[in-house]
Amino acid sequence: MNTAPGPAAPLHLAGPDGPWEPVRDVLESARPVIVHTTWGEWLTAALLDPELRALLGGDWQRYRHTPSAAGRFRFAVSRMVIRHTAAAALQTAPGSLDLTYRPGGRPQLRGLGEELEVSLAHTEDVLVVGVSATGPVGVDVEPLGRPVSFELLRDHVCTPEEAEALAALPEAERALRMLNLWTLKEAYTKALGHGLRRRFSSIAFGRDAQGRTVLADDTPPAWEFATHVVQGRYLASIAHRRHPGVTVSPLPEPGAAAWSPSPSAPQSPDPR
Fold first, then answer.
1. Which helix (H) or strand (E) covers residue 16, if one does?
2. How far is CA 162 from CA 51, 150, 166, 203, 228, in A?
3. Which of 59, 117, 122, 233 is most exposed, with minimal Cβ within 10 Å?
């Protein structure tokens, strides 16, 4: 039986040259890994890669038929990051992997089954990839400064208990907690393969005795969650369900933002 700390802090990878050893280290410790980067950091590699067609494989036609140049290279970069991250985990060449999609658009690696799960999220100029060798994984990312209307979104995003807890908070903290809750629920539904097809208000989060974000009625706990500030101005959340037989004892995560149903929830994350 494996014992591991929960989701590790996100890793910044500025291009295909890595370093990729930290990705392997995290996966070998039976934890899911989050990699974050920006489109611009990978753009030159995408533009100059003579093997781009072979690397994209089945995605090549979608790449060719994306109307705008910016859209094409954003698409190419996202698939490069997924393939390079998965290849680092498997210690193989990125071009040897075949990326396909499940119903609803969730990416998967052909032929690997549940051996390696992947998830993708992006917004503005940031891109986040989640990879897990120990169970389904989902990621989501949103700008820290994204306007969030509690009044308009509460019935869509929150359970009645979550809405009551958020309503008791000061406005600025409420907006951050709402955004945190949104990213957690989107990451969770991605890990399930449901995406936006599942109503967020049917999913309840809370905090356990150790202050960790937990899913209501997840007993014994099989899911783990974490939220971090990446690139200094984005909130990235990860949801991971462990395969049976893999036990996890999460460690404290300095700087992580986790939603709490209590008005005395942790303070807003340091955006540095």
1. none
2. 49, 11, 6, 10, 21
3. 233
Alpha helices (H) in 29-101, listed in sequence order: 39-48, 52-56, 60-64, 69-90
Beta bridge partners of 238: 139, 226
pLDDT in tens, 136-169: 999 999 999 888 888 888 898 999 999 999 999 9
* Per-residue confidence (pLDDT) for residue 263, from 0 to 100: 33
Buried b (16+ CB within 10 A) or exposed e, 178-215: bbbbbbbbbbbbbbbbeeeeeebbebbbbbeeeebbbb
What are the chain's domains? 7-133 (3.90.470.20), 139-266 (3.90.470.20)
What value does the CA radius of gyration of the chain take, rounded to a whole number of Å?
A: 18
- Amino acid of residue 112: L
The confidence score (pLDDT) of residue 6 equals 65
Give yes or no for a contact between 237 and 140, defined as CB atoms under 8 angstroms apart: yes
Which residues in the chain show pLDDT less than 50?
Answer: 1-4, 248-272
- Predicted TM-score of the model (pTM): 0.85
pLDDT for position 253: 41
Nearest to 256 by CA among 200, 205, 213: 213
For residue 95 the two structure tokens come to 């071009």
User: Locate tokens 């200094």: which residue?
Assistant: 232
Task: For residue 111, give the DSSP letter.
Answer: T
